[in-house]
Amino acid sequence: GENVEQHPSTLSVQEGDSAVIKCTYSDSASNYFPWYKQELGKRPQLIIDIRSNVGEKKDQRIAVTLNKTAKHFSLHITETQPEDSAVYFCAQRGGSNYKLTFGKGTLLTVNP
Amino acid sequence: DAGVIQSPRHEVTEMGQEVTLRCKPISGHDYLFWYRQTMMRGLELLIYFNNNVPIDDSGMPEDRFSAKMPNASFSTLKIQPSEPRDSAVYFCASSFGDTRGYTFGSGTRLTVV
Predict the structure, then answer these.
(1) Residues of B in contact with A105 (CB under 8 A)
(2) What does the radius of gyration of chain A's CA atoms come to, in whole angstroms?
(3) B65-87 pLDDT tens trace
(4) Residue A46 sits at the chain B interface (C-beta within 8 Å)
(5) Is the pLDDT of residue B1 over 70?
(6) Could you tell me which residues come within 8 angstroms of residue A91 by beta carbon, excluding any fewer than 6 positions away?
(7) What angle do CA A101, A107, A112 make, to 5 degrees?
(8) How many Å lie between the alpha carbon of B84 and the closest alpha carbon of chain A?
(9) Considering CB atoms only, which of A46, A97, A102 is closest to B43?
C-alpha cells in the first residue's frame, strides 16, 4: 500500500526551540520523500526532500532523516521562528509510479 | 517562469451547475497532477498525466469528474453536475520526471451552494 501516517497533527513550541515531525510509510519500494510547507490560504511549497539512498539531509535550520528499515522519516526544524508557523506535509513516492501520497499534515505553531 | 497557473482562484456555483477548473503547468514539465484538499481528507490525488496521457485516475471520485490534457501547456478538471460535497480547494501541480517534488499552483477554491 501507499499509506503515510504523520504525527503529531498539531505541535506548539516556543520560539527558539526545536520541532520534530514524524511520518511512517508502508511501501518498502518508496524511493522519494519530500516535505512541504503550507501557509494559511497558500499553496504547498517544497522545503526539503530526501531519496532512499540517503540517510540524512540538511538545509540551514531544517533537516530530514530517513530510516528505511523502520520505514519512517522525520523533519527537524531547529531555532524555530514565528514565520515557521504553518502546516507541514510529508509525502512519499512509491517505486512503481510518480504520484506522491501525502500525510494528513501537522499544524506547527511557534509562539514568540 | 511564472510557475503553475490555475484559474479561476475562486469559484462559487450552485448545485447542479457545471464547473471547469484550468491549469497551465510549468513549461517543460512532463507530469501534471490534480489534487483536492479538504480539512477532513487532506490532499487527495485525483488524476495525473504524463506527456498529456492520463496515467492514473483511480482517485477521481465518480463519473461527475473528468479531466483532460489536450496539449502540454493546458489541462482542465470538470465537474458536472456539481454538488455541495465537491466544495474544496483544487490544486494542480507539475513536475519534470522524478528529479524533484511537485510545484503546486495557487489552487482554485470551489464553493458549491
Answers:
(1) 42-43
(2) 13
(3) 999 999 999 999 999 999 999 99
(4) yes
(5) no
(6) A4, A33, A34, A35, A36, A100, A101, A102, A103, B101
(7) 150
(8) 20
(9) A102
Question: Which residues in A lie closer than 8 A to residue B42 (C-beta atoms)?
Answer: 89, 102-105
CB atoms within 10 A of CB B76: 15
Cell of A13: 513550541
- Whether the CB of A103 is below 8 Å from some CB of chain B: the reply is yes
Interface with chain B: mutation pick from A40, A48, A99, highest number of B CBs within 10 Å = A99
CA distance B101 to A46: 7
Strand-strand pairing, A10-14 and A106-111: parallel
The grid coordinates of residue A72 equal 519512517
Read off the pLDDT band of A2 (50, 70, 90). Answer: low
How do residues A10-63 score in pLDDT, each as one tens digit? 999 999 999 999 999 998 889 899 999 999 999 999 999 999 888 999 999 999
For A45, the grid coordinates are 511549497
How high is the pLDDT of residue B97? 79
